[in-house]
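Revision sheet: structure tokens.
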Amino acid sequence: MFSRVLIVCVGNICRSPMAVAMLRERCTAQGVQIDSSGLQACAGFDMEPTAKEVLDDFNVASYEHRASQVTLQQLHWADLVLVMEHNHLRSVLKLAPEVRGKVCLIGRFRDDMEVADPFRRPKGAFVDTYNSLTRCVDDWLPHLGARGAVRRVQA
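Predicted:
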């Protein structure tokens, strides 16, 4: 079981904060700590408004989020680092090769599926990202000691 999870994407305003909200909804009672950061973070920015809107549409509580740049300290803190794309995995390992054994694609259990970045795209792209993330989050729940499954839309 993992107790400290770091979720990494590029800007840390769309995918990773959405995934954090979904995981926190399920994992807080079990004491799992979940955080996020970005490889090229829009440091200090809030979650992208459309990402927050989609979470609200699916009754997933958003949270006070401020984007931050990934740090070595965060990577060492985490028991598990989840990334959205293969390029993110390579970037994290370039920054900190010593964390190799704990970095995975969030879509690992879906044939290493990548989660598309909806930034600056229509709301439908955010819904697609939400649905991809919920499938991935569902897959990780047993490894986090979480309860239930995240709500999702039928594809």
